[in-house]
Hints:
The complex is a heterodimer of chains A (112) and B (120). Helices cover 0% and strands 48% of the residues of chain A. Chain A is an all-beta fold. The relative contact order of chain A is 0.34. Chain B is globular. By secondary structure, chain B is mostly beta strands. In chain B, strands 2, 4, 5, 6, 9, 10 and 11 form a 7-stranded mixed beta sheet that branches. A 4-stranded antiparallel beta sheet of chain B has the order 1-3-8-7, with no helix packed on it. Chain B has no helices and 11 strands. Chain B has strands at residues 3-7, 10-12, 18-25, 34-39, 45-51, 58-60, 68-73, 78-83, 92-99, 107-110, 114-118. The chains are: A mainly beta (112), B mainly beta (120). Chain A binds chain B through residues 37, 39, 41, 43, 48-51, 54-55, 60, 90, 92, 94, 96-106, and chain B through 35, 37, 44-47, 50, 59, 61-62, 95, 100, 104-113.
Amino acid sequence: DIVMTQSPLSLPVTPGEPAAISxxxxxxxxxxxxxxxxxxxxxxxxxxxxxLIYLGSSRASGVxxxxxxxxxxxxxxxxxxxxxxxxxxxxxxxxxxxxxxxxGPGTKVDIx
Amino acid sequence: xVQLVESGxxxxxxxxxxRLSCAASGFAFSSHGMHWVRQAPGKGLQWVAGSWFDGSxxxxxxxxxxxxxxxxxxxxxxxHLQMNSLRAEDTATYYCARDIGSYSxxxxxxxxxxxxxxxx
Lengths: 112, 120
């Protein structure tokens, strides 16, 4: 199984300031087609997860452009250019390269 | 719009069975892989099982192999998870989720979840 790790696990943020979350996979998520099979999700309190970024860097429909994903191979980053209050929740990275699909442990983002 | 509505959760005793269902609408169900992902209370996300778009193949997480069975009806736009020999550690909210593509491209839409509690 591909092990996914995230850092930090807790991230207090200040509205208007940038924030970044790191995700690392136990093996490369870069497939021969040139795509990284790494997605990012936000789970707001009491809600289901929602897709933010897919294939490492593609923003999902309706996701604000303050969210961006980068990285390749085994190291990935989710960046929020200017945090807003609605961005609080738990962020998960997930690999879809191999079955079983595996998730990172989650990064809890809250307002300072 | 894409909708996934789970049902069938509840409280059961260890060793008992439950069948979860997911009613899909708003998209071409037969073109997408489908998954079940669970979340134990206060914990992270764990993939449980996944089905290819045409139902030709299913995959399972190791701890549920031999106990859970995934099935889909592409005419009725429904996904099912038959859960047998339930254990306390199966207690979780179970989410039905749509694959971005035919199977292993990741998940884009999630249902609201149905809670399964296994307790004596």
